[in-house]
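Per reviewer request, we include the raw input and output of the structure prediction for the construct analysed in the revised manuscript.
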Amino acid sequence: MLEKTYQPKDVEERHYAEWEESGAFECGLSAKAAGRGDKANADPYTIVIPPPNVTGSLHMGHALNNTLQDILIRYQRMKGRDALWQPGTDHAGIATQMVVERMLAEDGETRHDYGRDKFIDKVWEWKAESGGTITRQLRRLGASCDWSRERFTMDEGLSLAVRKVFVDLYKQGLIYRDKRLVNWDPKLHTAISDLEVEQRELTGKLWYFKYPIEDRDGEFLTVATTRPETMLGDVAVAVHPDDERYKDLVGKNCILPIVGRKLVIVADEYADPEKGSGAVKMTPAHDFNDFEVGRRHNLKLVNIFDENANLNDNVPDHYKGLDRFEARDKVVAEIESLGLLEKIEDNEMTVPYGDRSGVVIEPWLMDQWFVDAARLAGPAITAVEQGETKFVPQQWENTYYEWMRNIQPWCVSRQIWWGHQIPAWFGPDGEIFVEMTEEEARAAARDVYGREVELTQDPDVLDTWFSSALWPFSTLGWPDATPEVERYYQTDVLITGFDIIFFWVARMMMMGIHFMGEVPFRTVYIHALVRDEQGQKMSKSKGNVIDPLELIETYGADALRFTLTAFAAQGRDVRLSESRVEGYRNFCNKLWNAARFC
């Protein structure tokens, strides 16, 4: 006799294990390889999982995202289609390196005590022991992925795809090395992506400094700044071309206090007459907007920070070596002592912080590798305009267009050890050789130098988003012409959150069209956020995070999945509470008792 009350833990885990063992989740080619039949005559249907970080554990966003994918894949599988739900995890460069570095720190060690190769061995050891947490949790959620095909972005096959894409793009002129500003994390000592920058809103200060105008005794140009320390790297002042107050000063110079450098006064529409004094100090080496103004006006670049965001040798002696915030206080005090501080105002502003390091991010000028994203974006924009890929809800197309039509060069190099090391080697005179292997690089160097020379591989690794941009085809075995590539690319639908439309969706579109000749997916379904019952975003600081695994343990995976699905209306966020999950557990119990009655 069945028990009167449904006990989901016993039933769900037992059935899931039986399904996976029997090959119920396998696509046709996996089933054929295992001797379990052939679905050669069935229409293929493919979804690639947004690869969770190998360091991650299941959160409510994962629960919603994977439940929606599971509904689609099970439905198409039951309709008789050859359904592939391709699983895998992302190596998550910075996050994973930090996890392992923290472990070493507990024993008083750093990665530098090990050296690069031995440290990377340590990361692989960690991955073997702890890196499978998220995939075990997805199984507990009930995700019916074809686990026999699980991939990892640092697998040998995927690493080959990454190298080929980098080398091909370089030789096509679409990857290049340049000196530009990047988001520099002074604690982690690496460039980071915009997604890893947390913009915090706070009340800061706006300082008004008076810069003496050259050859005009007693006349000053007042500039307003939120970052007094960067004035030591000023090279110009910008005013709006239509600002009548300053028209007679354009082309003249003012003098940078403390330093004594001449600053040319330029006319540029970036200067806002309504903001501050209308005159903006230009520090192209330490501000992204200033950098673009600097390029337009051919301004000099003066970098005043080192990798720790301490002041370097390009500042007056009494500032060298100071922390940037100590320097700020000292600059303000010195400007005041010179009688050049006009006023200080409170200022509502956003300040960029590293989401992992928790320190203020510094725009820093350095040599990095960049992808010419603007050239790759053109075909990806056209594909959505022509309906080859559709966004659901359609409104998200506007977000996609906005980002893609204003796309900047994509910095793809990172100054860490865990990741795909860039396949570029430098000759003794700095000549660059980009090849698939060191042997090929040496052969190319022999052609240039006419002899054997010492080559040094670039120590940087690639941005994690570079490898995940290849996910829809690298997971199928590309660049080899595998049966999986032939059968399951392009994929049918991608389900993801709106926050990575640019970072992931757009980049998959660019890479898929460029290397495969067609879009990577026909439909992009953008799901809602899961919020608490008051509609607030879940966060640890608010203490309102609901752990999906705890709900699964208490009420069962089906109850949680049913709740998320029932409230996941298009364009509307999910408001989740434990009582709602309990209600759907009771509904599951009714189904159980109906079956028991039968």
